[in-house]
């Protein structure tokens, strides 16, 4: 048996799964992704799903969607970072989250970037993924526009 975590039909421990958004592949079947791309898509799926959105698994997802109307400040960034870390630790066992940095865009009010640093457990490969998240800025203007802050966890 090979020691390669990618060996075997299903891509080994890392795996193979449906591509998201759902699409057809070159042969007309459901497009599949594997290896690191499968993990990246799984992270995006977790962060992009609000808890309660899936009727058959209502606890699945990440609570960042509760912050769409929250003020753009360091406290909100810290809470978002904690939500991301907790959700990924619960729903994605193939990775170890090493850092989550939430930064507000200095130019585009209401835009923030969630930078997830993680290690793929099977390969000890350090990777990162930036997930854009959009909020609805308050009508008075956001503190993030005048003084961008970042949250780190």
TrEMBL record:
Residues 35-124 form the IraD/Gp25-like domain. InterPro entries: IraD/Gp25-like (IPR007048). Pfam families: GPW_gp25. SUPFAM superfamilies: gpW/gp25-like. This is Baseplate protein. It comes from Streptomyces globisporus C-1027. The lineage of its organism: Bacteria, Bacillati, Actinomycetota, Actinomycetes, Kitasatosporales.
């Amino acid at each position: 048996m090979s020691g390669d975590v990618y060996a075997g039909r299903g891509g080994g421990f890392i795996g193979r799964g449906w591509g998201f958004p759902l699409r057809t592949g070159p042969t007309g079947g459901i497009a599949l992704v594997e290896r690191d791309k499968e993990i990246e898509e799984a992270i995006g799926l977790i962060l992009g799903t609000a808890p309660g959105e899936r009727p058959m698994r209502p606890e699945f997802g990440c609570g960042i969607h509760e912050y769409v109307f929250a003020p753009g400040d360091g406290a909100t960034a810290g809470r978002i970072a904690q939500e991301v870390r907790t959700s990924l630790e619960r729903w994605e066992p193939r990775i170890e989250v090493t850092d989550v940095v939430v930064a507000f865009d200095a130019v585009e009010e209401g835009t923030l970037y969630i930078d997830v640093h993680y290690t793929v457990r099977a390969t000890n490969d350090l990777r990162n993924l930036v997930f854009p998240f959009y909020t609805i800025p308050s009508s008075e203007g956001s503190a993030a526009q005048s003084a961008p802050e970042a949250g780190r966890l």
